[in-house]
Amino acid sequence: MKAIQLELFGIDHLKLVDIPTPHIGENEVLVKTSAVSLQYLDLIMVEGNVIPDLKFPHIPVSEGMGVVEQVGKNVTRWKKGDRVLIPFIPKWESGEITTYNNQNRTGMQLSGTLAEFSVQPENTLVLAPKNLTDEESASLSVAGLTAWANLVSQANIKAGQTILVQGSGGVSLFALKIAKIFGLKIIATTGSKEKEAKLKALGADEVINYNEIKEWSNEVKRMNGGIGVDITLDVAGSKTIEQSILSCKENAFIGLVGFMSGSEITIDVFPLIMNYIRLQGYSVGNAQELTELVNAIEKNNLKPVVDSVFTVEKTKDAFLKLKSGKAFGKIIIKF
What we know:
The chain is an alpha/beta fold. It has helices at 40-46, 134-137, 140-154, 170-182, 193-202, 216-223, 241-246, 269-274, 287-300, 315-324, and strands at residues 2-6, 14-18, 28-37, 63-71, 83-86, 117-121, 126-127, 162-166, 185-190, 206-209, 229-234, 248-256, 278-281, 306-311, 330-334. It is built from ten helices and 15 strands. Strands 3, 4, 5, 6, 7, 14 and 15 form a seven-stranded mixed beta sheet that branches.
């Protein structure tokens, strides 16, 4: 089968190779990959900033979708031809995360999705939405699920609330679209004039350019009648967390979901304590929540934002596009 292997750290060391197709066990499913979606996590994995002692060669990338090619003799839930989403945390079916199901993640401790075939457990695969293409579906099991689990499972969003959406990466754009179908007011941030218009077109009620307004928490409150927002997802970490906290009202929810500007943070706990703000670290969700997201996508015809699609032969170009920071939405690699 074809696969992209990382032979040493660095984008230049991503190589297209032919390797043996893996064999499945009695309770496993062989999935033929259709499309994969790139995350910031995939970039820093490839560049050696996550697992410095990673064993080479390694197949990278954490999310994707495909078609069932073969099932083990004990598998009853799936059949050849089913379109499925590949899980990021393959042992996490439902409930809270545990030490047992948190120890292995696709594209990190386990081989990633950038291979023509992969072996998956039957109990955490989820049917892809009927209304989405393979390229659109590829971005659900990490980016889409991260937004859904934070907003719906953790923050328990309600119509009439206000959300602050930060930037135009995959998680943020999913958060915008999910908030829209739930009836929230949406304030978005971006550093690009061109992206301001795109965010408005997707349904943002207000947009703030953080390159023009450095203390954007004040502008957030001005746009929301002088009070802070109910929810925000902080995707950048060290350079944004202070403004995220100051943008929030009493009893607000802040989901810590990214670290694009750095993973080490220094914060003033006073506004957190005085305003009863919940600061929650959270990484994706479980198979049950992913099924809920798929149902919501089908019922509301929610469409993920795809920036660009590359062939597997152009994987390096796809990673360079991700690294440039110029993408609006997801970067997809298609088999």
